[in-house]
Design brief:
Blueprint: H1 6-18, E1 24-30, E2 35-40, E3 45-51, E4 58-61, E5 67-72, E6 77-82, E7 87-93, E8 98-103, E9 109-114, E10 119-124, E11 129-135, E12 140-145, E13 151-156, E14 161-166, E15 171-177, E16 182-187, E17 193-198, E18 203-208, E19 213-219, E20 224-230, E21 233-238, E22 243-248, E23 254-259, E24 264-269, E25 275-280, E26 285-290, E27 295-301, E28 309-311, E29 313-315
Parallel strand pairs: 4-28
Antiparallel strand pairs: 1-2, 1-29, 2-3, 4-5, 5-6, 6-7, 8-9, 9-10, 10-11, 12-13, 13-14, 14-15, 16-17, 17-18, 18-19, 20-21, 21-22, 22-23, 24-25, 25-26, 26-27
């Protein structure tokens, strides 16, 4: 496992030709240490650790960067964290087994996947109250909302499908068959395609959202967990492989596998698209990948059991 002095790491990010890192933070759920860690990606330093409890797993930073919403399956709750003050602002009891979480583009609605109830809970962000429940497939995990806010996609692991929900009505419009045991789901910036990491079939399903169907599958490493998109490529965490699989979004051809920390799970691209940040559960690290050069350029120590399942990066300027 790599060990890097933090000061040297910060310098190395500037040396590789990307320029110095932009002002951005990673909000990392550390499930086994029951907390949320905030990492300044410009300096690769931890700047806060916030107790959460209940084995935090899912994370969604609001589009305006003001709040981080954290699911705690054991506590059956969602914790709202003020991103600027690093303080817990509220705890919302949702019941069941909250796991995946997503915030609507306008920031007004929070969606929470209830693993046990085959449902997505709907929270009004202003009042911080549950307002509805939407029926989806068995064991919903990853959630994503289209850029226009009109559709919610739920990766329903034990149904081998993705539910498509009209957010205005809460109606489940379609159930799209994908690979085996889909977990993370990611939608592209245009809202045209979605990508699911299929844990059971070691591939990624490519979905045409308008047509409501799977159009391709891309082979990746062992036990893929989640997908990030940047610079015309898909980056997929392979839990059992200790790698990130990279494929071309146009041709859907595999490009490379990058060795990262042990048991990678959560993955996000930075706002400028130049780096990919990977939470590695077993090695308790964040691996930092140069998205153009396709190589690891740094590593940051985290708490115990980082998952960061969701949108865990926050732009600060």
């Amino acid at each position: 496992m790599r060990t890097l002095v933090l000061a040297a790491l910060a310098a190395s990010i500037c040396i590789v030709g990307l320029g110095c890192a932009s002002a951005e933070e990673a909000f990392v759920t550390n499930q086994l240490s029951d907390d949320l860690m905030v990492v300044d990606l410009a300096t690769s330093r931890s700047v806060a650790t916030i107790p959460i409890g209940g084995k935090p797993a899912g994370i969604a930073v609001s589009p305006d960067g003001r709040f981080a919403y954290v699911t705690s399956p054991d506590a059956k709750a969602v914790t709202v964290v003020d991103a600027a003050t690093r303080q817990v602002a509220a705890r919302i009891e949702v019941g069941g087994g909250p796991l995946g979480i997503a915030v609507a583009p306008d920031g007004r609605t929070v969606y929470v996947a209830d693993w046990y109830a085959a449902a997505v809970r709907v929270i009004d962000a202003a009042s911080r109250r549950l307002t509805a429940s939407i029926s989806v497939g068995a064991s919903p995990s990853g959630l994503a909302v289209t850029p226009d806010g009109k559709l919610l996609l739920s990766a329903d692991r034990d149904d081998d499908s993705v539910s498509v929900v009209a957010t205005a009505t809460g109606e489940r419009k379609a159930s799209i068959k994908v690979g085996t045991r889909p977990f993370g789901v990611t939608i592209d910036a245009e809202g045209k395609r979605a990508y699911t990491a299929n844990v059971g079939s070691d591939d990624v399903s490519v979905i045409d959202i308008a047509e409501g169907r799977e159009i391709a599958r891309v082979p990746v490493g062992m036990r893929p967990y989640a997908v990030a998109l940047t610079l015309g490529r898909g980056f997929v965490t392979d839990q059992y492989g200790g790698t990130v699989s990279v494929f071309d979004l146009a041709s859907l051809k595999p490009v490379k596998r990058i060795n990262v920390g042990d048991y990678p799970e959560g993955i996000n691209a930075t706002a400028d698209g130049k780096r990919v940040i990977v939470a590695c559960w077993e090695s308790n690290t964040l691996s930092i990948i140069d998205a153009a050069e396709l190589k690891v350029i740094g590593e940051v120590k985290t708490g115990d059991g980082p998952r960061a399942f969701g949108a865990f990066l926050r732009k600060t300027e």
